[in-house]
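hey m, so remember when u said the tokens were messed up on ur end? i reran from scratch. heres the input so u can diff it against urs
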Amino acid sequence: MCRGALHRMRVLTAMLALSALLSGCTSYSSIINKPRALHPATPAYSIDHAVSASRSGELTLVLAFSGGGTRAAALAYGVLEELRDTRVVIDGRPRRLLDEVDLISSVSGGSFTAAYFGLNGEALFSDFEEAFLRRDVASELVHGLFSPAWWFSSRGRTEMAVDFYEDSVFKGATFADLQQGAGPLIVINASDLGGGVRFSFLQEYFDLLCSDLASFPVARAVTASSAVPMLFTPVALENHAGCERAGRGWVQDAQQHLTGSPQLAQVLDGLQSYADKENRRFIHLVDGGITDNLGLRAIYDIIEVAGGPRRLLRSVGAKPASRLAIVSVNASTRVGSDMEASARAPTLEQTANAVTDIQLHRYNASTVELLQASIQRWAQELSTPAAPVASYFVQVDFEAIAEPERQVYFNRIPTSLALSGEQVDQLIAAGRELLRDNVEFRRFVKDLGGEVH
């Protein structure tokens, strides 16, 4: 066994041992989400933010970043680099595609890249690798856990992770800082453990909790989005009372036009459940990949719950663009198992991994199928005889890699917060290459008067 593998095994063993040691201790998440004033002084970080004067009305460009630890963060970073270097012609002048991104929906590992870009813009390309991608975050977190100050603390491992990300990556930024930026709307998604539904860090969702998102730390939202159950305790929010009528207007509107879809009915049931302030006083949020590992369902829900694309655009004061594009950056892997090499019954670990893998990929496949059909339907709904809308659905994933050896290499990169420098280099390069070589992306760029190099 190589020294690096031995070190990672020791780190994992230490983390699991310490988790077992502390499992008997009751831990509490810090509740810091404040009640929202009836007439707040700060603007809301909401869907309206996706409409910006700095981006053209000719194009709506949406990105979705999947989960997968640092692997997902690095792949998404490579895609952003390629968008930065891809130029098209919009409104008669050359533009970088990166500057045309309207919204990024993210879960788990992808949320680190999305949030950092939303806060820092172009500085992502000079700072993010050192701040996150090339750090052994897993070891740094474990080192913090071994501090005597945490042994008997009731704050728990998740609070330690929040502190680390707050100090080392996001530098104390809040959603008010995201609001002030000129970049795209960043939709960080987590999973509501009690409600069994996705939860997005948007003011529309915080309104259901009668809470203020502006003062909420970005680091805590990203921690919730990436809080793997069992290893990390949930991030908790208080479901405040006192603004029920004001906060539920958009949910009540959705009830009027959403009929015939069991999936959307489940979404609505989850949203309506936040009105039960007595029985749902605290909302516990964990890894967003549990309810949407691709970050695509959030896009679908936002549009459909609003009543469709035209109604959504009307609500935020925007007109349909002539082109609608979604780029899905999927860092999920297919790790083979050696269980078929023996007649022995699979171990509990092998069985659990296989079941999880099967469920994940089947759900991902159904999500992709849903979005492929939906984006075409949305484009048709927005089109008029005088102003047709073209749609593009671009998939960036490891299955597009032609060379079997390279596919095996990427599929063996673990879902971890500690990758080697070579793995990070290869993932960034793969993000750029997979986007650049994608047939649908090349069609999209050509239709915009650009050229992929």
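this time it looks ok to me. Residues 1-18, 20-24 have pLDDT under 50 and may be disordered. if urs says something different then somethings off w ur setup not the seq
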